[in-house]
Amino acid sequence: MLHPMGWDAFGLPAEQYAVKTGVHPAITTQQNIDNFRRQMKRFGFSYDWDREVATSDPSYYRWTQWIFLKLYDKGLAYISEVPVNWCPELGTVLANEEVPEQIEKGFTVIRRPMRQWMLKITAYADRLLEDLDLLDWSDSLKEMQRNWIGKSEGAEIDFEVADTKHRIRVFTTRPDTIFGATYVVLAPEHPLVDQLSTPPQKTVVEEYKRGAALKSDMERTELAKEKTGVWSGAHAINPANGKKIPVWIADYVMVSYGTGAIMAVPGQDQRDWDFAEKFNLPIIRTVEPPADFEGKAYLGDGPAVNSGFLDGLNMDAAKNRMIEWLEKEKRGHRKIQYKLRDWLFSRQRYWGEPFPVNHLEDGTISPLPESELPLRLPDVQSYKPAGTGESPLATIEDWVHTTDAATGRKARRETNTMPQWAGSCWYYLRYCDPKNDQQFCDPEKEKYWMPVDTYIGGAEHAVLHLLYARFWHKVLYDLGYVSTKEPFMKLINQGLILGEDSQKMSKSRGNVVNPDDIINEYGADSVRLYEMFMGPLTQTKPWSTRGVEGVYRFLQRAWRLYVGPDGKLSPAVSPDDPTAEQKKVLHKTIKKVSEDIESLSFNTAIAQMMIFVNEFTPLEKRPRTVIEPFVLLLAPFAPHLAEEIWEILGHDKSLAYESFPEFDPELTVDDEVTVVLQINGKVRERMMSPKGMSKEDLERKAKEHLTKWLDSKEIVKIIVVPDKLVNVVIKG
RNA sequence: GCGGGAUUGGCGGAAUUGGCAGACGCGCCAGACUUAGGAUCUGGUGGUUUUACCGUGUGGGUUCAAAUCCCUCAUCCCGCACCA
User: Per residue, what are the HEC states of A197-236?
Assistant: First the structure.
């Protein structure tokens, strides 16, 4: 079993702190790591600290850079001009998921094209989708990943622009509705917008484009209620019926999805309907809605109408027929489209992995040879971004200007750094072989340990981290460096612990619980035990200090089971043989605790241990052969206390060397059971009965018990469930 | 809007091939010990109009029997969101 811990140590918070204070992020990062490690050790978590890694350590990021070079060699890393979330105050580009947080802090975020590294995760879209089936993950998590990848099947169709040589290519999932396409829409950023706008419309179009560029993605979405757009002045030809239809520019079409252009079918699409209504564009139904349909756009299935040769066909048949026609006429083709975009892989920051590449004077890129790795982060005077959109690295002249080792030519280093996700994409592989300086992981060790059997993590990583890591893993798999298709077989999202007020813990709400304080008050074992006792691991639940007191009392009772007030072995601990009943309690407890640990149901395992302690506390004589194994059951939950009890019991070796108790299945079953007696499904009596009594005997015995209820009533039916119940159905 | 999950005492939760609803803990009530109790121990604790009836978000259904299976609606949480 491998149970390691490491630190995803690059990233924005350390960098922002450095900008504010001038302290090197490596120093604050180290302090934070030391503090976290101290707290974890205090809890007694049994991590293998020999395998600790930190992504900001050059001996680690050397291999992050190495993997990047593999991606580059495979053509999966490229540079592109893409619109990014530019934050002028921070002087940096933000990841989509960082935008809301920064806006909340009062910063502005605008879209601006910039030269960026991209990773071609889209090349793996299909496999990332399909291989989800191999995984033992929750349905909701798989569904989130599926939605994120967003596969949809449809067609790309070319619309000729009237009186020009231009063609507008659109993507649609509903080629069957093409006869109802009454206009075409281009995203404001679509490259054809300028060429298609007719002179009289030029001004309005230009104005509209400017307005759209000022809006961030967020604002566009928020203003989604009211559709906006302008006519370009141009017309397109509907390839299905040869009709001239207007070409509009509107920001409800996104340039980054599909082809950045759509054919609008208001009859079958609510967004198009809204737009058509507002701008008085024609609406034609091409699918017959049911007679009682009262909505506007009809999205459901039905026979095609107003659709020429498609009329009468249902949706699927019409789609296929239309695609066949388009392909035959060379006006379009079947197309699978993904929502997933390529991964924007550079940040204009200091505190991240430097890219191991040089830019030569002729504009070509020269990857660093492996022997040059790691390419270390240089020290800088100021952590403030260069302000030009470049990272602080750009200000260090003697670092930026270098001689390319591969070609001997003058070169500039890449001044972008990698995003925080980079290091966390493969750390689980490094755990297998953390000190290796020849390779990122010895293949033998990789084969031995991989894949990760159980990955317990926060739900906040449901999509991004888990998708990125799966992507890198698949690339490494294709290159033969890892032996499994998927990195994480079973995945558990632990639930968030809320504040005592059932709100998210936050400093501003003042409901934060500091582990150090609670440990000081109740001890590490109480906190561990309480956190497991609160409820199912995966569930979000509120903290309760009273609840900690409860388990604290339980631990004290457990202690007193063995230890007298003088701190020595209690005289109640007896060498006598246990009764059969006492042995049964022990074995039932071993069974329950073992099985519940396996299924991560720690709360019910602890409940069973409480029952055990409640059972033995009142006894004057507590047979040692029964209560001693219990210490070993308690040990994984409350290791410190268990270890002390173990010592007081007279052992000179740590209980860590003992094996976990095993139960005797025969001793876990009761030989007498309570059988419930029902009349018409209602519980009327109960009786004790030996386990395994035959149906006939049970029925006879039940009737005796129920005489006062049965009286002279007519018995319709008797249901007997052995060892459980007897239900007598009577009439009258 | 789409997708996923949830809803059980005053509270956290337990019970899932359909078979005793409320394990265990918190809180609360009563008692014991005590100068004292925010310590410890013992007993009690779903509700009600208490021979019994009602009760697992709402309303219906299947069944001898439903927290559990089916349908309806409501509320809450998480994720995505003008993805054509």
Answer: CCHHHHHHHHHHHHHHHHCCHHHHHHHHHCCCCEEEEEEE
For A330-389, the pLDDT digits (tens) are 999 999 999 998 998 988 889 999 999 999 989 899 999 999 889 999 988 888 777 777
Q: Which nucleotides of B are covered by protein (CB under 7 A)?
A: 3-5, 11-15, 19-21, 23-27, 39-42, 53, 64-66, 77-84
Q: How far apart are CA A467 and CA A157, in angstroms?
A: 31
Name the residue among A192, A186, A189 with its Cα closest to residue A165: A192
Tokens of A472: 């890198």
Q: Are A365 and A411 in contact (CB under 8 A)?
A: no
Residue A320: CB partners within 8 Å, gap ≥ 6?
A: none
Question: E-assigned strands of A217-346?
Answer: 230-237, 244-249, 261-264, 332-338, 343-344
Q: Give the pLDDT score at A417.
A: 92
Mean pLDDT, to the nearest integer, of A249-254?
91
Quote the ipTM score: 0.93
Residue A618 contacts strand B, CB under 7 A: yes
- Residues of chain A (304-363) having a beta carbon less than 7 angstroms from strand B: 337, 339
pTM of the complete model: 0.89
Q: Decide: A683 and A676 in contact? Cβ < 8 Å.
A: yes
Asked if strand B comes closer than 7 Å to A701 Cβ, the answer is no
| Assigned token pair, A542 | 């509120």
- Side-chain half-sphere of A228: how many Cα atoms within 13 Å? 15
Q: CA-to-C1' distance for A140 and B5, Å?
A: 7
